[in-house]
Amino acid sequence: MGKLYVVRHADAGHRGGPDEPDEARVLSDRGWRQADALRDQLADAGITRLVASPYVRCVQTFVPLGDQLGVRVEADPRLAEGQGAFGALALAKELRDTSAALCSHGDVIPDLLDSLVASGTKLKDELRWQKASTWVLTWDGEHLAKGRYLPPPC
Fold first, then answer.
1. pLDDT at 63 over 70
2. How far is 53 from 17, CA to CA, in rounded Å?
3. How far, in Å, CA of 103 to CA of 135, rounded?
4. Which of 27, 94, 101, 117 is at 20 to 30 A from 88, Cα to Cα?
5. Phi-psi map region of 125: left, alpha, beta (phi>0 left; psi -120 to 50 alpha)
6. DSSP letter string, 66-81
7. Which residues contact 8 (CB under 8 A, 6 or more apart)?
8. C-alpha distances in angstroms, 114 versus 92, 98, 119, 154?
9. Regarding beta strands 134-140 and 3-8, do their DSSP bridges make them parallel or antiparallel, or are they unpaired?
10. Rg of the Cα trace of the chain?
11. Is the pLDDT of residue 35 over 80?
12. Distance CA 96, CA 122 (A)
């Protein structure tokens, strides 16, 4: 059975003003420490694909892990803020034959988890999605059958 790792991006501070595009917001110092800790937490998970929202903070969250694994971080707009669960679910199905990690946002991840629970996925832990946290979801054939929560590593 394959696994899908769903990661909320690391800390990127607060949203800027109207002249600062949120898509370009970078990780804070704390966020980089979280990204390094995620690398250590997931380095031995057998991940072969890293797919992130095109927002800079999501891509940056996977940079240390990608460097460690020798895997390029792919940007996919289906994981962008405001996209909901539909695109993330479609992407997950495309990746079911690999061990992949997705990095997205605090609005997409709860939508994704709610959709999975509604379709029968059993989650071991209560729904939550702190920055730099991970949901480890396990495939059973065509379906994500179960999941467990990994709190932020730091």
1. yes
2. 21
3. 11
4. 27
5. beta
6. HHHHT-PEEE-GGGST
7. 103, 104, 105, 106, 109, 129, 130, 131, 132, 133, 134
8. 15, 23, 9, 26
9. antiparallel
10. 14
11. yes
12. 17
More confident residue, 142 or 9: 9
Question: What DSSP assignment string belongs to 19-63?
Answer: TS-GGGPPP-HHHHHHHHHHHHHHTTS---EEEE-SSHHHHHHHH
Q: Rounded CA gap, 122 and 132, in Å? A: 22
- Measured CA to CA, the distance from residue 106 to residue 8 in angstroms comes to 7
Give the integer Cα–Cα distance in Å for 86 and 63: 26
Global pTM exceeds 0.85: yes
The amino acid sitting at 141 is G
Q: Which residue has the tokens 């065509």?
A: 142
